[in-house]
Every structure is written in structure tokens, then in C-alpha cells.
Amino acid sequence: MRQDLCKPEKASLICSLLRQTPPGEFSQVVRDLSALVQDEQLVRQEAAHIGACHNKSNFTPIKINRHTVLLTHYNDLGGNRFFDPQDKFSFEFDHLCWITGKPQLHGVMLDEGELW
Question: Which of 87, 40, 49 is nearest to 68 (CA)?
């Protein structure tokens, strides 16, 4: 006899699987889970939060302005904004779509930022 899981149980399982995703595989796992669970809205909702934590914990590299910036807890400005220490600007990052946007100059006091 097949018994369907309730939404909180599905969400818990989705989060558990997403937390175990190897670096670089997150987007593919989200697509696969959406197909398996057949509830894309629930998967995307859970993946939005887990994706941000996953990318920062794994020091995920992204290309922006022809060079690589790591997404980390150290350059996280909150609200999905990250600091690029090389060019001294901040940008938004969509963890599900892997899109950067809304760049802004970001002034840094000499004692605020590390020279990387």
C-alpha cells in the first residue's frame, strides 16, 4: 500500500537530500527533486535557503567581471549580496538560477577588509 507524505515530511526529506549535495551539483539535484516530488514550488522554496548555505559552506566559485569570486560566509553582506574584494563592489546572487545582478560600488575602510 502506497502512502503519500504530507508537505512537512516532504520538505524535511528535500532539505536532508539538498544538504548532502556535492559541490557543483546543487542545481541538478534541485531539478531532479522537482521531477521526483512533483511539487516544484516546495522544492524551490526549500532549495532557496539551503542553496545559500550550501554555496557559502563550499566556497562556491562564480565568474563575475572576467574573474572568479568565492561565495563565502566572509563576503556575505546579507540579503543575497556578496562583496567582491578585488573590484570593491557588491552584487546580488540568485542561488537557484546562478545569476548575478545589481552591482554596487562598495566602499571599504582599511581596517574593515582583508587584502586577499
Answer: 87
CA dihedral over 96, 100, 105, 108, signed as positive or negative = positive
Q: What residue type is assigned to position 12 of the chain?
A: S
Are 1 and 46 in the same domain?
A: yes
Q: Which helix (H) or strand (E) is 62 found in, with range?
A: strand 60-64
Supply 59's cell numbers: 566556497
CATH code where residue 49 lies: 3.30.1140.60
The total number of structural domains that make up the chain:
2
- Structural domain boundaries, residue 84: 59-116
Return the number of other C-beta atoms located less than 10 Å from residue 104's C-beta.
10
- The pLDDT tens digits for 56-99 are 888 888 888 788 888 898 888 888 889 888 878 888 888 877 77
Residue 5's identity, in one-letter code, is L
